[in-house]
Write a structure and sequence with these properties.
Elements lengths: L5 H11 L7 H10 L4 E3 L5 E8 L24 E9 L8 H15 L4 E6 L4 H6 L3 E2 L6 H4 L6 E6 L7
Parallel strand pairs: 3-4
Antiparallel strand pairs: 1-2, 2-3, 4-6, 5-6
């Protein structure tokens, strides 16, 4: 993903997530802070926005929806999947699973130990199919910002050298 992709990313986000709007500044900041974890899928099928973060078990709450991070943690140990979005015409071909797998592989190679995300209402089953489990984190304003039924989920990462 590049800055030139951001207008298209914002348009797709607005189409897919009208109930979860985010500002252009949020997307631009995530891209600036973690360019290796921000992707446009081939053929305009969708996009992925992720960034290194600290595990909530280490005292870091997941970032609230539509909020700027300011900076990444000094010692991140997790990859936070902020938004994986596919155009409706591109669904069902495994594209989301493929980009998630690629992001998790890069994260594991960088020594991050887990991935986290907030599953919006009705999407936890999809993420469970990719190995994510409910995190059991206490309720927080960050989680509440994703709406009723949102669920924090985590998945351990294993580097290839450890397997």
């Amino acid at each position: 993903m590049t800055r030139a992709d951001l207008p298209w990313v914002l348009a797709l986000a607005g189409l897919l997530h009208p109930e979860h709007p985010e500002s252009a500044a949020v997307f631009a900041e995530r891209l600036a802070l973690a360019p290796g974890f921000c992707r446009v899928l081939p053929g305009g099928a969708g996009y992925a926005i992720a960034h290194p973060w600290a595990s909530p078990e280490d005292g870091a709450a997941p970032p609230p929806l539509d909020s700027l991070l300011g900076r990444l943690p000094l010692a991140p140990n997790a990859l936070h999947l902020h938004d994986i979005a596919l155009h409706p015409m591109a669904r069902g071909a495994g594209r989301a699973a493929a980009v998630v797998a690629a992001l998790l592989e890069v994260a594991a190679a960088q020594g991050l130990r887990e991935a986290s995300l907030i599953a919006v209402a009705g999407k936890a089953g999809y993420w469970a199919g990719l190995g994510f489990r409910p995190a059991g984190w206490p309720p927080s304003p960050a989680l509440a910002s994703y709406g009723a039924g949102a669920l924090a989920m985590v998945r351990p990462l294993v580097s290839r050298s450890a397997s």
